[in-house]
Amino acid sequence: MFSTRFYWGLEQNRLTQLLQAKRRAGADILDLTESNPTRAGLDYPSEILNAFADPRILTYEPAPAGITEAREAVARYYMARGMQLPLERILLTASTSEAYTYLFKLLCDAGDEVLVPRPSYPLFEFLAGMESVKVRQYPLRYHGEWSIDMQALDALLTDRTRAVILVNPNNPTGSYVKRDELHELARLCAARNMALISDEVFADYSLARTPGTVPMIAGFNECLAFSMSGLSKVAGLPQMKLGWIVASGPHALRTEAMEKLEWIADTYLSVSTPVQCAAARLIEIGETVQRQIRERTEANLRFARRALAGTAANILNVEAGWYIVLQVPRVLTEEEWTLSLLEQDDVLVQPGFFYDFESEAYLVLSLLTEPAIFREGFTRIAPRWHTSS
């Protein structure tokens, strides 16, 4: 009766089952996985509410690519980061998730393929599957810093490959794409009539810049390329539901892509008028939220490094974002580590396999966590790796 797009199991994993049982029993869980800025104890300016005091929100005048004022606000966002982008390259969406679906509709027929990074955020298979698109994972390798295994990526290409997806900086590794990697990806994409898609929602949250990194590819013209971001991370406002696509690349390809994207957007007309009218103020006000997030992530990272100094746990090199990856002793599996920390210490972390890490044993934690919770959580779990060394 139902579409074959729905081929995922709906059963809960053991960590979720234990977490629910602990909470039903009244346990006070220290959640070191918090990724929602609106629940992270940040100070949101009251001016955010005033941004919606605009009579235009009561008038429906749909513009498929987004109203001019909102796209101008996005253009100013990039201008502040050294990039001049004409409005005809910018198209608004309700979210970056919707932006992915638009790009899959634009680039892929049913059964076509896109390449996605591994490890990375566990969303691509769902988004692509809903569009009857297949994902193939290319590996990121860690040797003191993260890099794309270009040889492995090249071996994955087929005549059905339509795009290569970057998450830049990656979630959860926090690694930027390097300039030489970007040029090699562009060469491959141009030669095989593929597009490069770059998810750049965490680009503003730099923790340590390695020479040769590329924080954003908007305006990159060596191949057809699309950059994506949105208010969820740029302003710490996931509930506002505004994302965008920036098209780059050779003029003819870019122009045709934008014409077809606008046609897709016109079919759905999903972006709400109120958030478009408020976009300029939300991006501007959001800078104060960004500043709080950067200060918190930097402080939590410093604390985590001190807490784990001299232990058998190691924080992998991180350049940007809200997350850190811990490499822990393989005396337990990732699942066993997360279950043990939750059962015995009331501390919630995520196993690396949630993000498709290829080997054991990695744990993923959020630097966005409120400092008191983050520090108490680390104080509880760090001794585990003193005894494991």
Pick out its properties.
single chain, 389 residues, alpha/beta, Aspartate Aminotransferase, domain 1, Aspartate Aminotransferase, domain 2, 2 domains, eight-stranded mixed sheet, four-stranded antiparallel sheet, 16 strands, 17% strand
What ranges have pLDDT less than 50 throughout 5 or more consecutive residues? none
- Biggest sheet, strands in spatial order? 2-11-10-8-6-3-4-5
- Number of DSSP helical runs: 12
Strand residue percentage: 15-25%
Radius of gyration: 21 Å
CATH topology of the largest domain: Aspartate Aminotransferase, domain 2
Polypeptide structure, described:
By secondary structure, this protein is of the alpha/beta class. It has two domains: 132 residues, Aspartate Aminotransferase, domain 1; 239 residues, 3-Layer(aba) Sandwich (Aspartate Aminotransferase, domain 2), CATH 3.40.640. Helix content is 39%, strand content 17%. The chain has an eight-stranded mixed β-sheet with strand order 2-11-10-8-6-3-4-5. Strands 12-13-16-15 form a four-stranded antiparallel β-sheet, covered by helices on one side. Strands 1-14 form a two-stranded parallel sheet. Strand 3, helix 5 and strand 4 form a beta-alpha-beta unit. Helix 1 packs parallel to helix 11, helix 3 runs parallel beside helix 10 and helix 4 crosses helix 9. The longest helix is centred in the last third of the chain and has 36 residues. It starts with 13 loop residues before the first helix and ends with a helix.
